[in-house]
Amino acid sequence: EIVLTQSPATLSLSPGERATLSCRASQSVTTYLAWYQQKPGQAPRLLIYDASHRATGIPARFSGSGSGTDFTLTISSLEPEDFAIYYCQQRSHRPLMYTFGQGTKLEIK
Amino acid sequence: QVQLVQSGAEVKKPGASVKVSCKASGYTFTGHYIHWVRQAPGQGLEWMGWINPDNGDTNYARKFQGRVTMTRDTSISTAYMDLSSLRSDDTAVYYCSRPGGTPGFFDYWGQGALVTVSS
């Protein structure tokens, strides 16, 4: 089973700053990786799929990069509504499995 | 627009079973897999499995095999997740979700159903 490890666990930044979140896979997932944002009491929201493609309606300040085992979610200039928990997720084919990272909490400094 | 509407909160005793429903609308129900994901209080997301509404095929995460059953009723565009032999650590919000254009990534989510397991 592929394990996703996110870092840091908590990231404290101010509005307007740049946020860089990391997700590392225990083995290659090529580019089969997504990022989600979750706010308290809400379902997750898909931000990025296939490592670098923004989902419909996602602002351009969100970008994803990486391939193989190392991935990054970058928020270029934080807005107040961006403070939330972020999860990465992978899909693998052999075996057919989907796993999530443990999350990074992005909090206001 | 695509909507997934789930059944309400449940309270169950240890050892019991729970069945959560997920009613789909705004698209062809048989055209997209439905996945189930759960989240224990204050914890992360955990994928449980999927069902293909077209033919009923299922694939369950190893952790839940033997305890989970996913079914569907195409006549009412509804998917179900049945979890048996409940334990206290099954207390969680259970979400149904659906991929969009790219299989395996979840564009659409239900509102979640809280299942509390307590004696």
Description:
- The complex is a heterodimer of chains A (109) and B (119).
- In chain A, strands 2, 4, 5, 6, 9, 10 and 11 form a seven-stranded mixed sheet that branches.
- Chain A starts with a strand and ends with a strand.
- Chain A is globular and about 40 Å long.
- In chain A, strand 9 and strand 10 form a beta hairpin.
- Chain A has strands at 4-7, 10-13, 19-25, 33-38, 45-49, 53-54, 62-67, 70-75, 85-93, 96-100, 104-108.
- Helices cover 0% and strands 54% of the residues of chain A.
- The mean pLDDT of chain A is 96.
- Chain B is mainly beta.
- Helices cover 0% and strands 50% of the residues of chain B.
- Chain B contains no helices and eleven strands.
- In chain B, the strands form two sheets. In chain B, strands 2, 4, 5, 6, 9, 10 and 11 form a seven-stranded mixed sheet that branches.
- In chain B, a hairpin with a 5-residue loop joins strand 4 and strand 5 (45-51).
- Chain B is globular and about 40 Å long.
- The termini of chain B are far apart.
- The chains are: A mainly beta (109), B mainly beta (119).
- Chain A binds chain B through residues 1, 32, 34, 36, 38, 43-46, 49-50, 53, 55-56, 87, 89, 91, 96-103, and chain B through 35, 37, 44-47, 59, 61-62, 95, 97, 100, 102-107, 109-112.
